[in-house]
Amino acid sequence: MSLRIAAAAKAKLVRAAALRNTDLTNFVTQSALREADSVIAEAEVIKASERDYGRILELLENPPQPNDKLLAAAGALPKSI
């Protein structure tokens, strides 16, 4: 990967890498991976209010009876996958 960045930005990254006793490549890679992990985790987590969370648990513990449309859809599925 190659990057075009301003000299001031590169100098800041070099300084930060030196303060961490590592080279620029490792510093940038590790920083980018931490950010990638954060972005992925944020995208994969479902956020719900306390009220909504309670409703979800209630529905999981006491699911409603299937209606006619659900039964028809289930009946239309292949018997084996």
Automatic annotation (TrEMBL):
<dbReference type="InterPro" id="IPR014795">
    <property type="entry name" value="TacA_1-like"/>
</dbReference>
<dbReference type="GO" id="GO:0006355">
    <property type="term" value="P:regulation of DNA-templated transcription"/>
</dbReference>
<protein>
    <submittedName>
        <fullName>DUF1778 domain-containing protein</fullName>
    </submittedName>
</protein>
<comment type="similarity">
    <text>Belongs to the TacA antitoxin family.</text>
</comment>
<dbReference type="InterPro" id="IPR010985">
    <property type="entry name" value="Ribbon_hlx_hlx"/>
</dbReference>
<keyword id="KW-1277">Toxin-antitoxin system</keyword>
<dbReference type="Pfam" id="PF08681">
    <property type="entry name" value="TacA1"/>
</dbReference>
